[in-house]
Design brief:
Mean pLDDT: 83
Radius of gyration: 21 Å
Strand order of the largest sheet: 2-1-3-4-5
Low-confidence stretches: none
Number of strands: 5
Structural class: alpha/beta
Protein name: Response regulator transcription factor
InterPro entries: Sig_transdc_resp-reg_C-effctor, Tscrpt_reg_LuxR_C
Helix content: 40-55%
Number of domains: 2
CATH topology of the largest domain: Rossmann fold
Number of helices: 9
Pfam family, one: GerE
Keywords: DNA-binding, Transcription, Transcription regulation
GO molecular function, one term: DNA binding
Order of helices and strands: EHEEHEHEHHHHHH
CATH architecture of the largest domain: 3-Layer(aba) Sandwich
């Protein structure tokens, strides 16, 4: 990556101008206009409070590409934290700690895929994920990566080297059921074959 493309959005024009000026002084960073935000590698958003309007704007921009989100704010509720993580939140910086160099460091780290969350927000995020699994996904037989529990079981046994007949025997399923589970999983996740499915499960930490 020769240059990190960064779009900057702020709650006021003076803040934005100051941040843009500093970022533009760095040779490894190129600031793109707000109207080209969907082209950016990193979207840097600076707001006092994450409102419904801010979340709507993030959804609008980040649904069009895979930009990493760096958020500078003074207040972030659990629901908004969960929503922004879904849209690509990588780093949160308390506004009181948002020095110019801290922003540069966060932007470059985000571009490399590295995340940074204050301890209190990390705890808030983990509690939110736990609650989501316990109250929403678990009762529906789903995992946090969108797989059904039996899909995970089949993947684990397949990774152990079992064939269809052995998996069926182990799980007390028919062979047709095992094949249907695998077919549904590979179609939905766009996996090419069984080795690709096992590799996906390993990458997602399922097995």
């Amino acid at each position: 990556m020769d240059h990190v493309l960064v779009a900057v959005e702020a709650g006021d024009s003076i803040t934005r101008a100051g941040v843009v000026s500093h970022l533009q002084s760095r040779p490894e960073i190129e600031v793109v206009p707000e109207q080209r935000a969907s082209e950016a590698d990193v979207l840097l958003v600076i707001v006092d409070v994450v409102t419904a309007e801010v979340v709507r704007r993030l959804r609008e921009v980040l649904s069009r590409n895979r930009s990493r989100l760096v958020l500078v704010t003074t207040q972030l509720r659990q629901a908004d934290l969960m929503a922004t993580v879904e849209y690509g939140l990588t780093c949160v910086i308390p506004r009181s700690e948002a020095s110019a160099e801290r922003l540069v460091t966060a932007v470059l780290a985000a571009a490399r895929g590295h995340g940074q969350l204050p301890p209190d927000l990390l705890g808030l995020l983990l509690r939110g994920v736990s609650r989501l699994q316990r109250e929403v996904l678990g009762p529906r037989g789903l995992t946090s990566v969108g797989l059904a529990s039996r899909e995970v079981e089949v993947l684990r046994l397949m990774a152990d080297g079992m064939d269809t007949a052995q998996i069926a025997q182990q799980l007390v399923y028919s062979e047709r059921t095992v094949k249907n589970v695998l077919h549904g999983l590979m179609t939905r996740m766009k996996l090419r074959n069984r080795p690709h499915a096992v590799a996906y499960a390993l990458r997602e930490g399922l097995i």
